[in-house]
What we know:
heterodimer; A: 221 residues; alpha/beta; D-Maltodextrin-Binding Protein, domain 2; 6-stranded mixed sheet; 5-stranded mixed sheet; 11 strands; 31% strand; elongated; B: 372 residues; alpha+beta; BirA Bifunctional Protein, domain 2; 3 domains; 9-stranded mixed sheet; 3-stranded antiparallel sheet; 16 strands
Amino acid sequence: xxxxxxxxxxxxxxxxxxxxxxxxxxxxxxxxxxxxxxxxxxxxxxxxxxxxxxxxxxxxxxxxxxxxxxxxxxxxxxxxxxxxxxxxxxxxxxxxxxxxxxxxxxxxxxxxxxxxxxxxxxxxxxxxxxxxxxxxxxxxxxxxxxxxxxxxxxxxxxxxxxxxxxxxxxxxxxxxxxxxxxxxxxxxxxxxxxxxxxxxxxxxxxxxxxxxxxxxxxxxx
Amino acid sequence: xxxxxxxxxxxxxxxxxxxxxxxxxxxxxxxxxxxxxxxxxxxxxxxxxxxxxxxxxxxxxxxxxxxxxxxxxxxxxxxxxxxxxxxxxxxxxxxxxxxxxxxxxxxxxxxxxxxxxxxxxxxxxxxxxxxxxxxxxxxxxxxxxxxxxxxxxxxxxxxxxxxxxxxxxxxxxxxxxxxxxxxxxxxxxxxxxxxxxxxxxxxxxxxxxxxxxxxxxxxxxxxxxxxxxxxxxxxxxxxxxxxxxxxxxxxxxxxxxxxxxxxxxxxxxxxxxxxxxxxxxxxxxxxxxxxxxxxxxxxxxxxxxxxxxxxxxxxxxxxxxxxxxxxxxxxxxxxxxxxxxxxxxxxxxxxxxxxxxxxxxxxxxxxxxxxx
Lengths: 221, 372
């Protein structure tokens, strides 16, 4: 039998919403997958032809783009940041909704006019996306790449503004920041490696169909 | 700043034994197989005037070229990122008077301006064939079968051909399915980004994403869309290709793929192989611009041989015999004629094992060296 298809799932935000979706597709990971204390990275499922790996959200895109995993679930924010040519995103899974926004300290926002910007300094996990967004409106963005806790950067003078995911806005508020512009709405996508989509079509294509149908069911319910 | 010994610029590398030999062996096999079908080899230069490299293929997008200013002519030179355009130039200039269809083959290195994380090589060996003067179904079938044969002789197994219809979106958007932002729609279809497509208000194109897959079901789904003449004639062509390929390769159809098909016209294809992680070749129909502004139809394909070398193709086990000092040169000649590789001792300190020999010489015949 051929090597199993590897499905890459992100830790964190999307995971809890992804599991019910997987169940509707008919994929149930082994018990260790839900065990917080398990240090395993690769898990079997009820289907012998599918195995799951659990990695960081940004790494899901990288694993799948290189063909190390054939399919994955990842936020559209990550897809836009990498802009990998070898990824397909054939199904919008309609989970993990949030938005990618620009935020700044409330005091700055009170006197700030975004139309007058020519150069901004931004702390973000998304340097490529941020630079591209600002370039498109004629603003040069100097990005400070951080891997977390962006919200603290303005207060400590690391960067005046941040670009980060916002869902409720609670974290921003607690750090004295206000959202000044939404860059894009974000939702989780099913992604597929381009070569796997062609060379393992007999397994991958029905799997994509199953995800599409599962999302459809959720809408109907 | 000093450069560490042996450091090469990003994306460039040395090929060592046995991969260097494997690379030339694969190129030779592929070129010979192509040549047997009447494709005569041409060898354009590695660099030429920048304006000669671009603008030869109709609707080619401006490419990133590695440029230098030629100190002699003071004009901009560029390294070729692709040989297809150069073959087009040859076909419409120096070989413009040759009978059509003109069948040409080529193989050699190309140089890209920048490497990506997914394709870290900047220097690649490209080999292929171009058929100039015809892009009908018979010509396309000849090229697809030739591409499959070239991969077969290179040793690739589990070949899979992905067919695409590069100008379909343009044709449909000009006819039954108008869209406002065609470039954005094309990018979303290329990435099969269902969410992004819906956000652009181009939901009408969603069925093309779900149609992609094994060629049989894909054709059925596309026929069910009933989009009239524009699609029907192309689907008939796909049927003909499917019949011709038979069981020699797995076929998939992806009607809206654009990856690397910027200059392709009505049909394009990508080549994949079992165990090889990315695309290993591609081809399709395109239009060459003649110097007088008129156009000429063509179809061809290119293979990239480096992924095959990296995957271990083309390496053959060697039988190497160590010839001690003072042996009659005729013995070496006879052994080489039988297919042996010989390494002659130059001093009595030469060590057969360390020099890569598999056999020693016992005075009358090669004997395997004792494994240590």
